[in-house]
């Protein structure tokens, strides 16, 4: 019975991850982020008892039974990983688009960050002087 529950959890989380990644690649990162956040929330609102039973299913105990690993912990791990991937792709897209607009100069990332900070400081100081 435990093997079937683990396989069912793996299938549900696998489909969830694949859906988010396909939407991230084919559509947009904002849509992927919305799916990532709203599907579990809507599932809890639509069928709370079933979803809570699924999320509270305990797979194993670590540290001599002190630390349970539930489906909820796996969901949090998946959320944090996918949010990191989505944010990384957004930052990389922004950085590459910025590079293409400003030309191909050989400034390091640190130099670019320092220029960005300097332009932000200049913008704030010009607004304060007004």
Overview of the structural elements:
With 130 residues, this protein is mostly helical. 80% of the residues lie in helices and 7% in strands. The chain contains five helices and two strands, in the order H-H-H-E-E-H-H. The protein has one domain (2-104). Helix 1 packs antiparallel against helix 2, helix 1 (2-26) packs parallel to helix 4 (71-102) and helix 2 packs across helix 3 (48-55).
The CA-CA distance between the termini, in Å, is: 70 Å
Strands of the widest sheet, in order across it, are 1-2
Proportion of beta-strand residues: 5-15%
Q: In terms of structural class, how would the helical and strand content be classed? A: mainly alpha
Any idea what the shape is? elongated
Helix content: over 70%
Biggest sheet details: 2 strands, antiparallel
Properties at a glance:
130 residues, 5 helices, mainly alpha
List the helices and strands and how they pair.
Blueprint: H1 2-26, H2 29-46, H3 48-55, E1 58-62, E2 67-70, H4 71-102, H5 109-129
Antiparallel strand pairs: 1-2
Helix pairs in contact: 1-2, 1-4, 2-3, 2-4
Brief summary of the model shown:
The protein contains 5 helices and 2 strands.
């Amino acid at each position: 019975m435990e093997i079937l529950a683990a396989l069912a959890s793996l299938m549900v989380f696998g489909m969830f991850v694949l859906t988010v990644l396909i939407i991230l690649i084919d559509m947009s990162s904002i849509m992927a982020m919305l799916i990532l956040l709203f599907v579990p929330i809507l599932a809890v609102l639509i069928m709370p008892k079933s979803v809570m039973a699924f999320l509270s299913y305990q797979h194993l105990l670590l540290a001599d039974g002190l630390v349970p690993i539930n489906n909820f912990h796996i969901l949090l791990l998946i959320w944090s990983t996918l949010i990191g991937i989505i944010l990384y792709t957004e930052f990389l897209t922004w950085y590459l688009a910025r590079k293409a607009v400003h030309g191909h100069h050989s400034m390091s990332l640190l130099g670019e960050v320092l220029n960005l900070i300097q332009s932000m400081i200049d913008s704030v100081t010009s607004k304060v002087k007004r």
